[in-house]
Specification:
Length: 296
Amino acid sequence: MREHFDIPQAKENRTHSTLQVPFSLYACKIPEMYANVPAHWHEEFELNCIREGEGHFLLNGERLPAAAGDVFLLPPNTLHAAYARDGGALHYEAFVFHPSLVGASGGDRSAQDCILPLARGDLPVERRIPCGQGSHGEILACAERVFAAARRNTARADLLLKSELFRLLYLLSQGAPEPAPSRAEGFDAGLIREALRCMAAHYAEDLTIERLAACCNLSRSYFMFCFKRATGLSAVEHLNRLRVRAACEALRGTNDRVADIAAGCGFNNLSNFNRQFKRLVGCSPLEYRRSVRLLS
């Protein structure tokens, strides 16, 4: 299992699962490990348990609060991001698993009528189960057993893991509401995915709104509308967060000067870099470098 988090390429290229071990477990700590988890998607489910702090998740453009004790279940291909409150922290564990782990490739009626619609995002289960509401206690206990089994990472523990995942999906489907009308009829978050790929791969370059809109074959104004609707952020803000996140990686892993790191991450103005870094991380770049080295 992998317990690290690199800068994603919008659609993640890392392998979360194999045929033998169709899951991965991650510890996610903002801002200690990285400044934020920028918008991305993958072909697996993701189960998150918030451990400490407060912040929010963006799920296909919808902003949902996140606080200690909350549980999130994200269907495959959900465009998602995670941010701590400004100047604060958000710690959570993420269990990312392939749909095959819960029998999505099966032909029985539970697979066809329950698992596959959930994997497609057609089954309207709650994606956020807030602490203290409804069946949260039972769902959280089930999720904790999933994480415990994943940490054991053995063939025998996989039996328990699968059983608890099925129980979790059953509990979530019990309270599934009727499908709600679309918040933006005809809107497709996939319209801006090429721009996300471009930003993740070329964040250090001088990217303009016009270039990003051209990646998606959209007009400048419609691109900005689509981007904000899909991610909850402007394209400029998303790009700043990618750059600050890359700067955190460089501050932890190199002895390069702050000015060189800023330039290498796409900031042409050192004052703007320092301002953006402190706004998003809660401290100056030098303070961040000192704090992470004290912890290592």
